[in-house]
Amino acid sequence: MSTCDHPGVLLATGATALVYELDDRRVLRRYRDRRRPVDRAANATEIAWAAGIPTPRVLAAHGPDLVLERVDGPTMLAEMSAGRLSMDDAMRLLADLHRMTHAVRRPDDASLLPERDGGDRLIHLDLHPNNVLMAPGAPVLIDWENACWGPPGLDVAVTAVILACYALAYRTEDDALDATDLLDVFLRAAEPLTHLDEAVAFRRDRVDFMPPAEAAQLDNAAGLVRYLADQPPQ
């Protein structure tokens, strides 16, 4: 019987997985769909870790279970909401994590990850403030289950759409954290975005994993992003 048969305290609950404590060095990320293998997430995390991107090290993977190095720290969103991290600093860190990820080029013989649009750079496709842990010393990027090889501008656009949906859904609920300003700062700090319509379609395919208030804003998200990025309609 393995340690994963009886995981410890539930540490985090996500749309697709639960994270449990195993001990002071390891956590278990267990996907809700027990039929879903973790190969893609494990491969992408290993590629990122080997390239020097700050991310937890993969220790084991089997079936729906992924055992990872434990990283303690609040999310970037929690730190911003508590006023311990400025919006400008957070969005610059988010943009820097994009650049670090996109600096990883697909090897000629690589077949561990799928490819989108013929792109050859590592892209995360879920890079937002709740997937960044503010660990002591440096932010850590987690949750690589959507990662693939593709164009950096698509990755930037997916983040922009996520932030736009958040801004539109909660624009009157949190005066301390103006989410539209958050998106504006990110767009100014990040690499140029491309493939905006594809980013909206990508998020629409994942609407079952989104909060209903944010999912309801997908049709409006591209317009807000184009307005702030000063892009004409496609």
Strand-helix topology:
Elements: E1 10-13, E2 17-21, E3 26-31, H1 39-50, E4 58-62, E5 65-69, H2 76-81, H3 87-102, E6 121-123, E7 132-135, E8 138-141, E9 148-150, H4 152-170, H5 179-189, H6 196-204, H7 212-215, H8 218-229
Antiparallel strand pairs: 1-2, 2-3, 3-5, 4-5, 6-9, 7-8
Helix pairs in contact: 3-5, 4-5, 4-6, 4-8, 6-8
Give the N-to-C terminal Cα separation: 55 Å
Q: What is the oligomer described by this structure?
A: single chain
Q: Give me the strand/helix succession.
A: EEEHEEHHEEEEHHHHH
Tally of discrete structural domains = 2
Described by strand count, sense and barrel closure, the largest sheet is:
5 strands, antiparallel
Structure description:
- This protein has eight helices and nine strands.
- The protein is of the alpha+beta class and 234 residues long.
- It folds into two domains: 3-69, Phosphorylase Kinase, domain 1; 76-229, no CATH class.
- A five-stranded antiparallel β-sheet has the order 1-2-3-5-4, covered by helices on one side. The chain has a two-stranded antiparallel ribbon with strand order 6-9. Strands 7-8 form a two-stranded antiparallel sheet.
- β1 and β2 (17-21) form a beta hairpin.
- α4 runs antiparallel to α5.
- The longest helix has 19 residues, at 152-170.
- It is globular, with a radius of gyration of 17 Å.
- The protein starts with 9 loop residues before the first strand and ends in a 5-residue tail after the last helix.
- The model has no long low-confidence stretch (mean pLDDT 91).
